[in-house]
Amino acid sequence: MTFTYYPVDGKIFRRFLNMKLNLFFARLALRFLLMWGLETNSLSHRIALMYLLHKGLETNSLFDRLALTYVLNGGLETNSGFNRLVRAYLVTRGLEPNFLFDTLARALMYLLKRGLKTRNLFDKMAFMYLLARCNEAVHKSLSVRGFADICDLARVEGGNLIDQNLQRISKTPMAWQAAKIAVTYRWIEAFHEETTDYFRYTAQLEYWTSALERLGQLEDEENSESD
Fold it and tell me: Which residues cross the membrane (predicted)?
């Protein structure tokens, strides 16, 4: 059996090796909030999500903001003429279905990173409310499903990490090798981490496990096509 060794792409290697998981944990927290939140029908919940939306949006278009606010508040659930117009507008603007969630997650990440250190009173109020609601949602999920939801959601995010970076890491054998080595290292690091935070431990381990498995799956597909 012959093995081919390639030098690694330093830029890709450092990208995965030094990747912070702030956005991953924000996305995870938001998933739990939307799935298991105890106040999802309350006015406070709606206001908090709208605050996240308008904080996370990078567009200055009033129509973009109005359309996304409409969707966030339960729009598009029927097939009315107005809803068809809103859908057409969102498609035209390139605001795909995941755009809304991604925007909320980025804004939540910002709030969680700043925490109570922020001088913005509204940020501080949103942080305290959302942190409490997210913690409630996680505890509710754990009481009903154990660690099943954590594993499932983290694995989806880990696989998506590779898919989102696929074009970049598949350009050269060096880039691919760099990604494999760095992701393997992150998996080993997550596996051996000593912590009593089992939520964080499980989430990180499943995230990097899924990323590593996705790399292997893509490699197997590539090899089968070349046979």
Answer: 21-38
**What pLDDT, in 10s, does the model give residues 44-97?**
999 999 999 888 887 778 877 888 887 777 665 666 777 778 777 777 887 776
Average pLDDT, the chain: 87
Task: Report domain extents, the chain.
Answer: 10-226
Place of tokens 């278009």: 61
Cα–Cα distance, 184 to 209 (Å, whole number): 9
Angle, vertex CA 162, rays to CA 157 and CA 164, nearest 5:
85
Helix and strand element counts for the chain (H, E): 11, 0
Judge contact between 51 and 126, C-beta under 8 A. yes
Helix (H) or strand (E) holding 110: helix 97-114
Residue 94's region, left for phi above 0, alpha for psi from -120 to 50, else beta, is: left
Asked if 87 contacts 76 with a C-beta cutoff of 8 angstroms, the reply is yes
Per the CB < 8 A criterion, the answer to whether 167 and 216 are in contact is: no
Distance CA 147, CA 122 (A): 33
Each residue's pLDDT tens digit, 125-159: 999 999 999 999 999 999 999 999 999 999 999 99
Cα atoms in the Cβ-side hemisphere of radius 13 Å centred on 218: 19
pTM for this one?
Answer: 0.86
Residues 6+ apart with CB under 8 A from 111: 52, 55, 118, 123, 126, 127, 130
| Alpha-carbon torsion (51, 52, 58, 62), positive or negative | negative
